[in-house]
């Protein structure tokens, strides 16, 4: 999860929305992926862009469901740690689909992150090894969102 410190808070949050707070920076000290999600929303004749940072895939599904009728565009980027992407650096890649299920071999809950370039990662810490899944469920699909469809619930 993202966190920050009192000394990093800036007063601009009070100007944006009642009850909101803002920070100059946040900290991420865990070796797990997170997501950079950009939405272009359209209401009547007005449209604007919002950007979110999530670490739970279900939050992306909840966001797209909440704004389903007003999403004009969506871009979900996987921000993966070196242990996941097999390099020595964090990487950011566009996501085509996120699928959850139970790994048949281990009986553990797993997410599969399918990138737009064809690469797939899992949260199982095994680079280039995507397990067979039982009880598959689509958490997010860029294609489905662009068509106005809902992922599996």
- Uncertain spans, ≥5 residues at pLDDT below 50? none
Number of helices: 4
Which oligomerization state do the chains in this entry correspond to?
single chain
- Class computed from helices, strands and strand pairing: alpha+beta
Mean pLDDT: 86
End-to-end separation in angstroms reads 24 Å
Overall geometry comes to globular
Q: Helical content, roughly? A: 10-25%
What is the number of strand segments?
9
- Main sheet characteristics: 7 strands, antiparallel
Name the beta content range.
35-45%
Element-by-element helix/strand order: EHEEEHEHEEEEH
Give the radius of gyration.
17 Å
Summarize the structure.
This protein is of the alpha+beta class. The protein has helices at residues 13-16, 57-66, 82-85, 142-146; strands at 9-10, 22-23, 34-43, 46-54, 71-80, 91-103, 109-115, 120-122, 133-141.
């Amino acid at each position: 999860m993202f966190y920050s410190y009192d000394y990093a808070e800036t007063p601009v949050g009070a100007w944006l929305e009642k009850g909101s707070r803002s920070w100059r920076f946040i900290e991420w000290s865990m070796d797990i992926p997170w997501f950079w999600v950009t939405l272009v929303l359209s209401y009547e004749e007005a449209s604007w862009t919002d950007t979110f940072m999530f670490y739970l895939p279900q939050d992306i599904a909840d966001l797209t469901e909440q704004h389903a009728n007003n999403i004009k565009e969506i871009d979900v980027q996987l921000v993966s740690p070196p242990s996941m992407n097999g390099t020595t650096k964090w990487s950011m890649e566009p996501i085509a689909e996120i699928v959850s299920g139970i790994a048949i071999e281990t009986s553990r809950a797993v997410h599969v992150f399918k990138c737009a370039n064809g690469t797939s990662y899992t949260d199982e810490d095994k680079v280039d090894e995507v397990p067979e899944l039982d009880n598959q469920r689509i958490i997010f699909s860029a294609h489905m969102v662009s068509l106005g469809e809902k992922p599996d619930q």
